[in-house]
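Sample pair:
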Amino acid sequence: MKFYFQFSALQLSVAAAALTALLSAPALHAGSALRTGAVAPQSEAAQVEADQAEESIEYANADFGFCAQLPAGWKDFSVTMSHWSSEPPGQAHSITGPMVRVRHPRWTSRDPHEDIPILVFTRAQWRLVQTGRIEVSSAATGPSELAHNAHYVFALPPRYNADMAEGYEEVEGLVSHGFLHTPCGTGKRGLARDLEHAAPPGSLPVAGSTLAGRQ
């Protein structure tokens, strides 16, 4: 009888060890699955962002040395050159500068879509903007900087979307996600382009010219 009870205890010990191993195995697999599931959504989101970037188009402005990343729906966009002006108090002459207007390809006079206006300031002019000596509109706030390089500061006019034209929400999204960058090649796509150097102040394009959209 003594041998019988010793053998049964050994059996119980072995069975308990086997049961412990069996119960711990699913927990390990579940933990691995949980960890894998946590990484998967991030990888999927990154892939979606990469796909969207591949489908986007880029407007490269060699005159001023900036690039703008646009959605694929903006293919065949157009670019119009105009100007901004300001009359500082105490000065006899007004101060002017270029404005680049990127226009949606579906824009018509009967169905206007929201433009992307980009004010171009020299670095000296931008210092005057910051001190309030240059005002480009009657709005209480001034232009907001989008990007800058060694020669120019690129800014968004205040209340540019006050008309709430078709697509204004899309334009707001582009602005909030930093669609404009300088130098070219530093955007989300990491494009390596050898564009011409930005034209120095004093050799700016003539206002009123229109460029066809290009990829």
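Strands lie at 57-61, 66-70, 78-86, 95-103, 116-122, 144-148, 152-156, 180-181, 210-212.
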